Amino acid sequence: MAMTPPPFDPELAAALAVIAEHVPSTITLEWARQMRAQGVGVKLTAEQLGRDGFFAVEERAVPGPPGDPDVSLLICRPVDVPGLRPVIYHVHGGGMIIGDNRTGITAALDWAQELEAVVVSVEYRLAPEYPHPAPIEDVYAGYVWTAEHAEEFGGDPERIVISGGSAGGGLTAALALLARDRKARQPLGQMLLFPMLDDQNDTPSAFQMAGIGVWDQASNEVGWTALLGEDRGTDKVSEYAAPARAEDLSGLPPALIDVGSAETFRDEAVAYASRIWQAGGVAELHVWPGGYHGFEGFAPQAAVSQAASGARLPWLRRLLGE
Amino acid sequence: MEELAGRLTALDPDAGVAVRVIAYFDRLAESRAGLEALVRGAAVLAGCPARLVDEERRVRVRVEPDGTRSDTRSAPDAAWPREPLRPSSSDSDAALWLERDGGAPSVVDAVILERAAGVIRQVLDRTRGRAVPAEDPALVETLLDASADEQARLVAAKRLGLETADPAARFRAVAVFGGRARILPADSGLPQGRIGVGPAVSVLELPRSGSAARTALRFTAAGTPQDPGARVVNADELGGLALLEELVVPGAEPPADVRALETAIADAPWMLVTLHAVATTASLRAAATEINVHHSTMQVRIAHAEALLGWSIHAPQGLWRLQLALTMRHLAATAGG
Fold first, then answer.
1. % of chain B beyond a pLDDT of 70
2. Which residue of chain A comes nearest to B34, CA vs CA?
3. What mean pLDDT is predicted for residues A10-28?
4. I need a labelling partner for A95 at 20 to 30 A (CA). Which of A180, B102, B294, B313 fits?
5. Looking at the partner chain, which of A8, A99, A298 has a beta carbon nearest the beta carbon of B7?
6. Which pLDDT tens digit goes with each residue over A124-178?
7. Minimal Cα–Cα distance from A161 to chain B, Å?
8. Which among B8, B33, B41 is the nearest to A19, CB-wise?
9. How far is CA B270 from CA A238, B262, B303, in A?
10. Phi-psi region of A315 (alpha: psi -120 to 50; beta: other; left: phi over 0)
């Protein structure tokens, strides 16, 4: 069925016209392997991460899931700030198949600088070499360690906000479910930015955006299949792999959900927010008109990008009460 | 995913840059982007602040390369690269600037300026129209007042920016429903909305044009089923019909035909629209088409109307009586405004 997609915002469309050669609409495993080999995006040095001495940066290997390798955490703590500070537990994106604990960390560092918060960014094993449940279990293990050891690096275990974009957003939603169901310490809030929630990949927006924009339906299938193999799309899929599958969305921490109107993930993100409210929960939903997946990263200067990134810090402030 | 692809940043001067600049602004133009987005594009691609100034149209937009809007009242530096918006204005009055200090303008800057300014010109023409000075209501009133001193009227005309030096120049007054009267050059396009248009006259004859425009306005209607009629009436086309205005005295007892018409209108919801169509089209068939009813329905309606009106529309002068009654009823309703 041919469905007309919502139009891209003019500034975002123009940006895509200029940089599209770097981003194929349909991602393949082959492309992902290339990206892994050459390194994803700009490699940030410890100095750059530290932001001129604002943060002290260290990399810690912490115990992974039982019987599995250690998980690497990148910890950036504000220097010379008294008291225990909020913690942003950051889960990187990359379609489940690429990325590391520095991927996408810039935004988290921006918020942390404003809030004088600690950023903990987890590196998880990637699919397809490590299918479900390896990625989510790594994320969970890193989270549990963070909650137990927060005070060692100046973090407040009662104020951990979990956050992620794209695949990281899906893993963040799954982490919130796991923390609730395994009775671990609950995060204070969850930021699900353009989240990858639904392996079924059959919403209207998935069809509308097929072949255009960023991370289209076919790319999504590549990512989910890498994570789930043949189980993808069947009833064998766990809610901790695909949070859209969860039947019970009650008792979750307040959520901020961000998505573009012109991306594959629009409908599953809107549905997730709706179901949180139907369960009596707390959620804030933004659907940015004309935004494709990850738009504010590609064109941060555009007016709608400024609006999108500008909405997150206020949400954090309200959540943290600062 | 955004980390993978890099982001939109200032373009390095290399062989492919012109193509990408062109692609960028073409895409913005296709999507009907506004002025701020266009100036932002220039700033981001050039990597320095960009500034659009058009004093005549009261436009002032300045954007930083990180995308934030930060307008300023300070004057641009004459050394900065720029693209003028039109030959009739000076650069300081109407141009797009890149706030780039030092050195010769680069090839990238030139392409960015040219492309951005091209789209900006289109947007300005589309959204701001021909640059016209704002119309001071007091000046307009003076110019339309026959009892005002001639010298005062000429001064007012000059201050409104009307071309008074040319004796052949013509202007018209436009009476606006629910708004202030306006004075426009005779060859100018007319404003939107419900208006009465005065004849083209010389500057000192504008009071006459104003009075004719006001009369013409009384003959306009909302153009709805409850108030059918034209929203724009030209005094020139009204001709002798304008005399009817003098027949209608506000507060006076309506003539018998108008009272009969009111009775008929009150009788059926379709009456007014139907009679208006009959009065303003060339034949009953055309009237039927106008209001989308079958010809035989129209005949039934006419018969019903004639019974209520008390005269036959088909009889000699019957149609003229109807037109007169409708017009006088309408004028009585607009007598207040």
1. 91
2. A10
3. 81
4. A180
5. A298
6. 999 999 999 999 999 999 999 999 999 999 999 999 999 999 999 999 999 999 9
7. 21
8. B8
9. 65, 13, 13
10. alpha
Contact state of A14 with B31 under an 8 Å Cβ cutoff: yes
Q: What is the mean pLDDT of residues A243-271?
A: 97
Nearest by CB to A10, from B2, B23, B31: name it. B31
CATH of the domain at A35: 3.40.50.1820
> Which of the residue ranges A226-230, B132-136, B246-250 would you say has the lowest mean pLDDT?
B132-136
The pTM is what? 0.66
pLDDT at A271: 98
Structure tokens given for A24 = 């194929």
Report the alpha-carbon distance of residue A163 to residue A186 in Å, rounded. Answer: 13
Longest CA span, chain A: 58
Q: CA–CA separation, A84 vs A153, rounded Å?
A: 9
A9/chain B closest Cα distance in angstroms: 8
Q: How far is CA B234 from the centre of its chain?
A: 16
Is A99 part of any domain?
yes
Of B8, B28, B41, the CB nearest to A298: B8
CB spacing of A40 vs B4 below 8 angstroms: yes
Q: How far apart are CA A105 and CA A46, in angstroms?
A: 12
Task: Using the predicted structure, report yes or no on whether residue A21 has a pLDDT greater than 80.
Answer: no
Sort residue B98 into left (φ over 0), alpha (ψ -120 to 50) or beta. Answer: beta
* Tens of pLDDT, residues A181-236: 999 999 999 999 999 999 999 999 999 988 888 888 888 999 999 999 999 999 99
The residue of chain A nearest to residue B21, with distances taken between CA atoms, is A18
Q: Which of A20-29, A260-269, A310-319, B305-314 has the lowest mean pLDDT?
A: A20-29
Report ipTM (2 d.p.): 0.77
Q: CB distance B3–A8 less than 8 Å?
A: no
- Mean pLDDT over the full length of chain A: 93
Confidence of residue A36 (pLDDT cuts 50, 70, 90): confident
Measured between CA atoms, the residue of chain B closest to residue A100 is B3
Chain A environment of B31 (Cβ under 8 Å): 7-10, 13-14
Nearest by CB: B3 against A10, A19, A103: A103
Lowest mean pLDDT: which of A210-214, A263-267, B4-8? Answer: B4-8
Assigned superfamily of B249-333: PucR C-terminal helix-turn-helix domain (1.10.10.2840)
Range of the domain at A17: 10-320
Contact flag B4-A98 (C-beta cutoff 8 Å): yes
Of A71-85, A106-120, B85-99, the least confident? B85-99
Q: Where along chain B do its domains lie?
A: 2-128, 137-241, 249-333
- The helix or strand, by DSSP H or E, that contains position A31, with its residue range, turns out to be helix A29-38
* pLDDT band, residue A297 (cuts 50/70/90): confident
CB contact under 8 A, A15 and B36: no
Spell out which residues of chain A touch residue B66, defining contact as CB-CB under 8 Å: 300-301
- Span B191-204, mean pLDDT? 91
